[in-house]
């Protein structure tokens, strides 16, 4: 059975926050707000540290700074959601290293985004990762983190099958609806796809 969590974009399920590396300075105020999830992507440090041949996505802090921020969030009692963007110019070894780091920190919610090379951005010339490559990536991640929620997230609409093969390869969760600057896939489309695959969609609180 595939356990997937889908939410309407306008629905507040549990309070969450994305504060990147300012967590240590603000954790007392955060706890007053009492969010349940702390979203902290490793993707930016991931590109800066591992991919010297590509434009530095972030130069204000290091990969180790991000690891420290995640650990601080966990110490404060928050559930951390952390993943990365595929297609920045990284190698398969880089991707595996990222997931191993997440595994070692006990992260069970791992969103996987596919780079959308939007014209006018530093990565506009990057080739979109193919459906087959994304499926292989998801399958490897599933072997590395068998008990995690591997969430198909931003950029999934660039795949010809909208992520169908990725679900068959090990993805077991998704972020539906539009993303920050790009169109996403609607909940209705996802529900129809998962139904066609024979999966049961369930709501989980963890």
Task: Summarize this structure as a short list of keywords or feature phrases.
single chain, 206 residues, alpha/beta, 4-stranded parallel β-sheet, 3-stranded parallel β-sheet, 7 strands, 36% helix, globular, disordered N terminus
* Count of discrete alpha- or pi-helical segments spanning 4 or more residues: 7
Could you estimate the helical fraction of the residues in percent? 25-40%
Poorly predicted sequence stretches spanning 5 or more consecutive residues: 1-38, 43-55
Largest sheet: 4 strands, parallel
> Which assembly state applies to the chains in this document?
single chain
Q: State Rg.
A: 17 Å
H/E element string? EHEHHEEHEHEHEH
User: How big a fraction of the residues is strand?
Assistant: 5-15%
Shape: globular
Q: Looking across the biggest beta sheet, what order are the strands in? A: 4-5-6-7
Number of strands: 7
What is the CA–CA distance across the termini? 16 Å
* Broad structural category: alpha/beta
Mean pLDDT: 76
């Amino acid at each position: 059975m595939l356990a997937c969590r889908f939410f309407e974009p306008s629905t507040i399920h549990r309070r969450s926050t994305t504060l990147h590396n300012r967590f240590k300075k603000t954790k007392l105020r955060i706890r007053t707000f009492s969010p349940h999830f702390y979203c902290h992507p490793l993707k930016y440090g991931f590109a800066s540290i591992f991919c010297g041949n590509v434009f530095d996505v972030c130069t204000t802090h290091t990969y180790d700074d991000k690891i420290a921020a995640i650990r601080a969030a966990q110490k404060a009692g928050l559930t951390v959601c952390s993943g990365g963007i595929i297609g920045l110019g990284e190698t398969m070894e880089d991707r595996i290293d990222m997931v191993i780091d997440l595994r070692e920190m006990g992260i069970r919610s791992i969103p996987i985004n596919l780079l959308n090379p939007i014209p006018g951005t530093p990565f506009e010339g990057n080739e979109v990762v193919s459906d087959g490559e994304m499926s292989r990536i998801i399958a490897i991640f599933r072997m590395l983190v068998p008990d995690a929620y591997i969430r198909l997230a931003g950029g999934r609409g660039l795949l010809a099958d909208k992520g169908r093969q990725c679900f068959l390869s090990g993805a077991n969760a998704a972020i539906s609806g539009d993303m920050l600057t790009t169109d996403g896939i609607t909940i209705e489309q996802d529900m129809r796809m998962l139904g066609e695959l024979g999966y049961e969609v369930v709501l989980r609180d963890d």
